[in-house]
């Protein structure tokens, strides 16, 4: 029985939502295993756009079980808003179709406030976070003072837990010259939201174990991308969780053997939102054109995404660190009409050649890409649903990428629409 993990292979926004939605037809359970509502996963189904933030991207299909795993940090107010938005589009989730792990840490208003205050204090050195409180919430998790989803069902114990949390936060707030937060206010906020969240809270590790035993197929959905991973990304310009496939197990309460196939999602070029190094970034009209055709604006914050050529060194590294079995190459159509395309095949650093992306932020900022130039294609690939519909030069581009990243292409995406997808190899078939 094949269970599949889907992860971003670049700096996020690769089209994970579209691919997870497409693949979820073949699965019974879809689990988010890290990140929070810093993620924005877009689904376009028959012209209707759905945005998943903390919820997994299988929610639109009826009869699927959606799960928020313990590796996620969850803002309960934002979740309620997300559920309301989905309901307005005709998608209603119930405790039968959505389960939240009892050990999922919560994002509280103190976290988003601290995130934003710290970014402001950093000035030009800011990370460019989404301001959603992701970093501070993960800090409290590893600092062993988080309030977790299951705590909402134990109201009598909340004041003591909130005291421990505020001991830390009020010290920080004093340092930032901001007013302290009162324990009773936080407890009240939590008690108000508790009845809305508690019905969804359950024992996720056991639900997943039972699903596996019953032969159900599970799809694990990552957020962000490998280059935003707290260990393997462009530190410190990263998010605060492990975004790599290894986290799918720990972030949902399963063993590593639960995942049979790891699918990396990569655009046919590169984008990044927020600060940090980006070797193949384009500052010219070609980059601008890609951004316009690809509608490269952040799903969560609306910020323009930085655009550049495909970086095969980065995606190959991502393939190794994630243990990718295959890749879904998205947004091929955005490259339509370009005379030539460049692909980064290596770097030089201080005159020496380099076949990997070093961990040092200083070196990451100084590597110079070595490009291979490829012929572009004039015909449109937009909406193509089979290999036969692709221009020969587009096929050549895909084949060269496969070679460079040492990973086969399992899926190709040619528009935001669910069905504009080419299946080359079914990840669930392995
Ligand atoms: P995610 O965070 O990885 O789920 O990606 P986002 O949803 O944040 O960003 C991807 C954007 O590209 C969304 O607006 C998608 O609708 C869109 N998209 C996905 N696949 C394709 C594709 O093949 N072609 C085009 N033109 N757009 C796509
Ligand atoms: P999806 O799942 C792209 C980026 C932010 C910032 C850095 C840290 O939609 O691909 P954070 O708020 O997490 O502390 O911000 O990470 N970032 C993303 N970039 N896609 C995402 O998610 C992202 N989630 C966070 O822009 O640079
Ligand atoms: Mg996104």
List keywords for this structure.
430 residues, alpha/beta, Adenylosuccinate Synthetase, Chain A, domain 1, Adenylosuccinate Synthetase, subunit A, domain 2, Adenylosuccinate Synthetase, Chain A, domain 3, 3 domains, ten-stranded mixed sheet, four-stranded mixed sheet, 31% helix, globular, binds guanosine-5'-diphosphate, binds 6-O-phosphoryl inosine monophosphate, binds magnesium ion
Describe this structure as you would to a colleague.
By secondary structure, this protein is of the alpha/beta class. It has twelve helices and 18 strands. The strands form four sheets. Strands 7-6-5-2-8-1-9-13-17-18 form a ten-stranded mixed sheet, sandwiched between helices. Strand 17 (409-413) and strand 18 (421-423) form a beta hairpin. The model has no long low-confidence stretch (mean pLDDT 97). Guanosine-5'-diphosphate (GDP) binds at residues 8, 12-18, 39-42, 44, 294-295, 299, 330-331, 333-334, 413-416.
Helix content: 25-40%
- The radius of gyration is 21 Å
Strand order of the largest sheet: 7-6-5-2-8-1-9-13-17-18
Largest sheet: 10 strands, mixed
Spatial shape: globular
Please sum up the structure shown:
Helix content is 31%, strand content 19%. It is built from twelve helices and 18 strands. The structure holds guanosine-5'-diphosphate, 6-O-phosphoryl inosine monophosphate and magnesium ion.
């Amino acid at each position: 029985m094949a269970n599949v993990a889907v992860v971003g292979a670049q700096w996020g926004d690769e089209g994970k939502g579209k691919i997870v939605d497409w693949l979820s037809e073949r699965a019974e359970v879809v689990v988010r295993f890290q990140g929070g509502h810093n993620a924005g996963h877009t689904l376009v189904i028959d012209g209707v756009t759905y945005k998943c933030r903390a919820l997994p991207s299988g929610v639109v299909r009826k009869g699927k079980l959606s799960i928020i795993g313990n590796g996620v940090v969850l803002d309960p107010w934002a979740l309620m808003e997300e559920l309301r938005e989905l309901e307005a589009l005709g998608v209603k989730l119930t405790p039968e179709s959505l389960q939240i792990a009892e050990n999922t840490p919560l994002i509280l208003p103190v976290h988003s406030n601290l995130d934003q205050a710290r970014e402001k204090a950093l000035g030009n050195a800011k990370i460019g976070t989404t301001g959603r409180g992701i970093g501070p919430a993960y800090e409290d998790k590893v600092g062993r003072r988080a309030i977790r989803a299951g705590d909402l069902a134990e109201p009598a114990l909340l004041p003591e837990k909130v005291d421990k949390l505020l001991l830390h936060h009020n010290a920080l707030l004093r340092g930032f010259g901001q007013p302290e937060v009162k324990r009773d206010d936080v407890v009240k906020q939590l008690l108000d939201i508790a009845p809305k969240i508690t019905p969804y809270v359950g024992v996720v590790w056991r639900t997943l174990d039972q699903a596996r035993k019953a032969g159900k197929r599970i799809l694990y959905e990552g957020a962000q991308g490998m280059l935003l991973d707290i260990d393997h990304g462009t530190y410190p310009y990263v998010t605060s969780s492990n975004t790599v496939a290894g986290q799918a197990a720990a972030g949902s309460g399963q063993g590593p053997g639960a995942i049979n196939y790891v699918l990396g999602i990569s655009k046919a070029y590169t984008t990044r939102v927020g600060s940090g190094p980006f070797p193949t970034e384009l500052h010219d009209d070609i980059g601008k054109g890609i951004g316009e055709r690809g509608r490269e604006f952040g799903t969560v914050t609306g910020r323009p995404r930085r655009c550049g050529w495909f970086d095969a060194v980065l995606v190959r590294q991502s393939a190794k660190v994630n243990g990718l079995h295959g890749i879904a190459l998205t947004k091929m159509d955005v490259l339509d009409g370009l005379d030539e395309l460049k692909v980064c095949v290596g770097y030089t650093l201080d005159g020496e050649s380099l076949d990997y992306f070093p961990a040092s932020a200083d070196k990451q900022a100084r590597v110079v890409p070595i490009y291979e130039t490829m012929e572009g294609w004039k015909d449109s690939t937009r909406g193509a649903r089979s290999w036969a519909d692709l221009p020969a030069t587009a096929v050549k581009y895909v084949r060269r990428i496969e070679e460079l990243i040492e990973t086969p292409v399992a899926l190709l995406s040619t528009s935001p629409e669910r069905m504009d997808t080419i299946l080359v190899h079914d990840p669930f078939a392995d």
